[in-house]
Amino acid sequence: MTQRFLSQAELTALVAELVAAKTRVIAPVRAQDNPEQLDYMPIQKLEEATFGAQVPRRSLKEFFLPATEVLLRYVQTKEGVEIKAAPTEAPPFVIFSATPCDASGLDVVDKVMNWDYKDELWFGRREAATIVSFLCAAMDAVCFCTAVGLGPDSFRGSDVLLVPVEGGYLAHIITPKGEALLKGKGKEEIPASAKAAAEVAQSAAREKVEANLAKIPAEFAGWLAKNFDHPLWKTLSLRCHGCGACASICPTCHCFDIVDEHDSSNEGVRRRNWDSCQTSKFTLHASGHNPRGSQNERFRQRIQHKFSIYPAKFGDILCTGCGRCARACPGGMDLPTIVGELMAMAKAEPEGGSNL
Amino acid sequence: MNIYQPYLMSIKEITDETVDTRTFRLEFKDPEVAEKFTFNAGQFGEYSVFGEGESTFCIASPSTRKGYIECSFKASGKVTRALRRLSVGDTLGFRGPYGNNFPLDNVMKGHNMLFIAGGIGLAPVRSVIWTCLDQRDQFKDVTIVYGARSVGDLVYKRELEEWGKRSDINLCLSVDPGGETPDWKGKIARIPTAVEESGVKAEDTFAVICGPPIMIKFTLPVLTKLGFPADHIYTTLENRMKCGLGKCGRCNIGPTYVCKDGPVFTAAQIRALPQEF
Amino acid sequence: MKELQDLARKLLSEGTVKVVIGYEEGPRGARAAFITDPEKADKLIFDTRCVQNLASYLNPRRKQIALLGKPAIVVKGCDARSVAGLLRENQITRDSVVIIAMQCSGVLENPGIESDVELTSENVSVRCGGCDVCEPKLFDHYIKSAHPTVPPVNPKRAEQLAALEKMTPAERWDFWSKELSRCIRCHACREACPMCFCVQCTADKGTPLWIDSSSTPRANRAWQTMRVLHQAGRCVDCMECERACPEHIPLGLLTRYVANSVEKRFDYKAVDDPSVVAPMSVYRPDDDEEFIR
Predict the structure, then answer these.
(1) What is the pTM of this model?
(2) Boundary-marking domain end, from C88, C120, C143
(3) Chain-chain contact of A57 with C248 (C-beta, under 8 angstroms)
(4) Phi, psi dihedral angles at A172 (to 5 degrees)
(5) Burial letters for B21-41: b for 16+ Cβ neighbours within 10 Å, e otherwise?
(6) What is the number of structural domains in chain A?
């Protein structure tokens, strides 16, 4: 892994080069309906982007797992049915100034997407993307990336991580894709002061977010599994509407539905659509039986999947600590606070208790 | 080809098992696939009617027979109703085989087998039964206890007849009290009673059971009473599924994914699951 | 607030209700509270951050809340209209809930953690301007405000509505097509809405399939149009739909626009008197219109 020094002008020129080569460049820009918020949008010039500011409203997930995508097209013919599978190759694109939480989220979800069966649609886009992250220093009181084992300068999921220093940016080149992107750009010689400044900036950022929530201990996953039937689940989610807004903006929520749709009487598509375990019909059987029939069970599933099941299976918490769910929730459900309360319970009753 | 792309299947044969249960025999349209396709008894697939959607059923035919698969279903929802509208020669989609299987080869071989099923629950068990019968000499005693609410609800009637005629199978058919017809020669009892009265011994025996949840609920204590250890009793679980391959996040019971860790489980495994199914 | 807390404590300790649904201080500001212990009644608050319409928690399909027992609910005037709607449409009975109505001077558009934010025409919610239910009429208990004032008017809404009304139908179609292109069919709007209480929503039906469930322009328009028309005459302009929408679609503007149309044509607003019938949800055998007789 190497480092380079890039000036603002060089970064601007790089984006211009990519755009000229018809490569899609995506970066955070001020939202049209609310200039205080950011959205990841395609840009034509670097000046359109807002760097290193707060996390954009929606995650990068939608560029890799769209809200809806066609899996195959079918045509009924006299002989039967012809199907055409969706292409799994995507045109190359570059994401500029991704937050490290968003980039890491992709790395975390890779694990389930590769579990025994490789999801070529997801990986086609993953392979086509080059991700340049930016040191996050604009975390607010809701962020908790370090608590889940990530951080504002995490390398996970990124090809390059930019750290602003005097005169430009120190670029950590993390992968061969990052190397290819910055080949011949910037300087290999980095002033010692810049290296030191970057280290200071990175550790200051980590300290800032560490203050929000303590690191989730490894035993937490097991405690949650052991306390599946704890009475706490009966009152934890009373204010939750089961709306699923949290799942849609979450970088790691990936659950989906598969539906067929007619375009005409003999042609149509099979689609994959975002879905959420928080919705009332997610686990509804055709018989009418629903194993998760109330919000209590559904919210329990959210916590269990993210903080117990996924870590047990894949070694990662299915959460990047970006805090979007807490900001978006219309019902006041606050995941970092809830996780903090559960961790306190786990500490007080390591073997699990029967009282709330 | 992506993992969500189904094989194209042609309906070769349609059998109406009961008023509401139908069996399809399906052949792979691609001869290469037909040649290479294998599965193990207990596995399932996603069967689709293009334009309507996919539905999850087990493969009801034995793994020892090549070139075709069978499924049995009841029309209860959008896709199953669309399946019922199909005719011989029509095309449908199949993704699979998914899930784990009954460990016939490495655990059950050389032992006695007890098959218990109720109603359409015979479909997954039938796959195991025929796979076992196709290698009959590899197993010791074979007992089949099968019943339904009424005579009309019994499925695979031709095969029941066939099994009844074999001397190497102890077949016990029963219908619920009130479900018998005047010429019914089988037992009149619910499955738990039929199992208890079948004379089957627990020693050196593996039980495979599938049927309505209430049937399983009352039959398991009978098996325990007879001396079956929980890890000698196998069943299949159903849960709402979509992808069938562990990615859509829908079918898990706690940390157990029915599509990956199941659908075949022992009673011991089920007892250890969180009670959310 | 003390009056509210005392009342809640009394209702709970006397067993009149088993839970008081109100607002409390959360880690990010005001949030819904479910107080079952009279000792915890002092957690209840009421200030300009109490934006959420709590009436959705009265939906009988929310099993985990119904299990708590008979509720008392804290409502602003606008929320009281939702409770009236639930009563009007027989989702709950009058004796199944104790209504604690608060005299309200308006709420913030974007409440945060700070509790003493004074309302101005810039930070007040767009729906507070011209409010005629600051003193709700539907209640079992009425709690006056210490310093009642008329809420300031946020001009943004009038501007948006005027802009919409100036458009030709084709322009309005384009405007909403563009806004609704972002819809991801998460149905958060529906789940947060107090009046979307159907056991099975038309959008969830598969046989027959009325609306594709995917996020496509055609299906998105169909879904939102259907929802908004189902809300016509029932929506109380609480804007929970817009607050819930993760794509920040101005759903409250759409529902307000339709509510205005209903007012114009039928001289009807969703009111907090359950005995006043709503034009869209009532049928009379001697209706003036022949097609419905």
Answers:
(1) 0.94
(2) C143
(3) yes
(4) -80, 120
(5) bbbbbbbbeeeeeeeebebbb
(6) 2
Burial class (CB in 10 A: 0-12, 13-18, 19+), A210: middle
pLDDT tens string B211-246: 988 899 999 999 999 999 999 999 999 899 999 999
List the beta strands (DSSP E) in chain C. 19-26, 29-35, 44-45, 71-75, 98-102, 141-143
Closest CA to B82 of A262, C58, C214: A262
The last residue of a domain, from among C85, C112, C143: C143
Which of these, C41, C106, C102, lies nearest to C75 by C-alpha position? C102
CB-CB: which of C30, C215, C248 is closest to A273? C215
Of C52, C57, C214, the CB nearest to A68: C214
List of chain B residues whose C-beta atoms are within 8 Å of the C-beta of residue C209: 78
Alpha-carbon distance of A311 to B150, in angstroms, equals 48
* Structural domain contains residue C174: yes
B91 pLDDT more than 80: yes
Last residue of a domain, one of A193, A210, A227: A210
Nearest CA in chain A to B276: A291
Q: Which structure tokens are listed for A50?
A: 């807002």
- How many residues does the structure list for chain B? 277
User: Could you tell me the pLDDT band of residue C206, with boundaries at 50, 70 and 90?
Assistant: confident
Do C109 and C50 contact (CB within 8 A), yes or no? no
Give tens-digit pLDDT for B111-129: 999 999 999 999 999 999 9
CA A170 to centroid of chain Cα atoms: 24
Candidate from A50-54, A165-169, B119-123, B244-248 with smallest mean pLDDT: A50-54
For residue C209, what is the nearest residue in chain B, using CA coordinates?
Answer: B78
Rounded-to-10 torsion of CA B120, B122, B125, B131:
-120
Tell me the residue type at A104.
S
Indicate whether C149 belongs to any domain.
no
CA distance A5 to A197: 13
Q: Which chains touch B (3 or more CB pairs under 8 A)?
A: A, C
Q: Cis (ω within 30 of 0) for the bond into A291?
A: no
Q: Is the domain of A190 the same as that of A50?
A: yes
The DSSP string of B66-84 is -SEEEEEEE--SHHHHHHH
The CA distance from A236 to B146, in Å, is: 45
Residue type, B75: A
Q: Which residues of C18-40 are buried (b: 16+ CB within 10 A; e: fewer)?
A: ebbbbbbbbebbbbbbbbeebeb
Q: How far off is chain C from B79, nearest CA to CA, in Å?
A: 9
Q: Is the CB of A237 less than 8 angstroms away from the CB of C247?
A: no
Chain C contact set for A57 (CB, 8 A): 246, 248
Top residue of C200, C207, C213 to mutate, by most chain B CBs within 10 Å, is C207
Interface confidence, given as ipTM, is 0.93
User: Do C20 and C129 reside in the same domain of the chain?
Assistant: yes
Task: Say whether residue A34 is in contact with chain C using an 8 A CB cutoff.
Answer: yes
Q: Are residues A145 and A245 in the same domain?
A: no
Residue B165 CB contacts under 8 Å (≥ 6 apart), including other chains: none
- Which structure tokens are listed for A309? 């099941």
In chain B the first and final C-alpha atoms are separated, in Å, by 33
Residues C16, C136: one domain? yes
d(CA B149, CA B89): 33
Pair A22, A133 in one domain: yes
